[in-house]
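Input record, target 12 of the design panel.
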């Protein structure tokens, strides 16, 4: 969905998710922000460079070249290829001479100098890392705007962190419209590692000149969609928009009234605020369902009851 009301989905590679796509997404917000969202019929999309977690969306693309495990895997793969009785199947366009690399004497020489060979290769990988940062990743970060959402409306922590200690609301964003921007959402992965996906066989084979280059977009995927395990409770999904500005910032992007399916009022949300928000929605032509959060009498959980 673009700033002028037309829609456009953004995709940089395959969607990285482990479960089916939710039928709805949930936006936690304060009552004050919800009032602006309903009145203006816009949602605020932020630059990833402005996220509150400095470890979220690394400022620099990293292949993990200084990870010992990567170096060892790279070294072991080269030794496996050089010791094989078969010719090494170099990929088309490789800068390595096919006849030379398959010459027995050359192989013995390379095996005896494997550590020097690996170090030189890692230096070339570092140059490629710098190239990807300067030409693709950093420009993309500066131009990107992201809408962050959750797949659940009942997270205690998120109600406290983002919905003003249960005094705010959660907006349910529906996906029934096939043209909705929400249908392009990408699932966030959680890990205790800051670099994901660069030490597997696919990458090792590529840098050994025997495999095709992995999709370039997977560089961005690993960084834009990976957060520390501590954030897993958010069950976050992200929708990306590529703007024209080449500097970090925010964009208030319009949505269609039917894309707001429901409004969930927090336990501490006052009657006056509820009435004001319902009036704002009606004035904007938004006709959501309304629910009120309440305590489950037997568990530490939230339940939602229809509210009129």
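The sequence produced for target 12 reads:
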């Amino acid at each position: 969905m673009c700033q002028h009301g037309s829609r456009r989905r953004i995709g940089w590679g395959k969607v990285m998710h482990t479960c089916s796509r939710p039928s709805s997404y949930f936006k936690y917000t304060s009552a004050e922000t919800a009032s602006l969202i309903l009145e203006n019929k816009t949602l605020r999309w932020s630059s990833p460079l402005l996220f509150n977690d400095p470890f979220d969306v690394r400022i620099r693309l990293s292949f993990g070249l200084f990870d010992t495990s990567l170096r060892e895997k790279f070294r072991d793969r080269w030794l496996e290829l050089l010791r094989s009785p078969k010719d090494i199947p170099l990929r088309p366009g490789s800068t390595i001479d096919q006849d030379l690399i398959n010459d027995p004497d050359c192989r013995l020489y390379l095996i005896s100098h494997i550590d020097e060979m690996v170090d030189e290769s890692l230096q070339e990988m570092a140059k490629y890392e710098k190239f990807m940062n300067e030409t693709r990743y950093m420009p993309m970060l500066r131009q990107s705007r992201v809408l962050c959402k959750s797949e659940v409306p009942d997270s205690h922590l998120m109600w406290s962190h983002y919905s003003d200690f249960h005094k705010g609301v959660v907006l349910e964003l529906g996906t029934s419209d096939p043209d909705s921007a929400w249908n392009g959402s990408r699932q966030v992965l959680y890990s205790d590692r800051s670099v994901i996906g660069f030490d597997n066989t696919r990458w090792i084979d590529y840098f050994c000149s025997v495999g095709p280059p992995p999709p370039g977009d997977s560089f961005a995927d690993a960084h834009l969609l990976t957060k520390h395990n501590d954030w897993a409770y958010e069950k976050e999904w992200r929708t990306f928009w590529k703007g024209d500005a080449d500097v970090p910032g925010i964009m208030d992007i319009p949505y269609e009234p039917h894309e707001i399916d429901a409004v969930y009022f927090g336990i501490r949300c006052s009657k006056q605020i509820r009435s004001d928000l319902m009036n704002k929605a009606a004035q904007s032509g938004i006709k959501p369902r309304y629910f009120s959060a309440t305590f489950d009498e037997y568990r530490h959980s939230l339940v939602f009851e229809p509210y009129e």
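Residues 24-46+145-194+226-306 form one domain.
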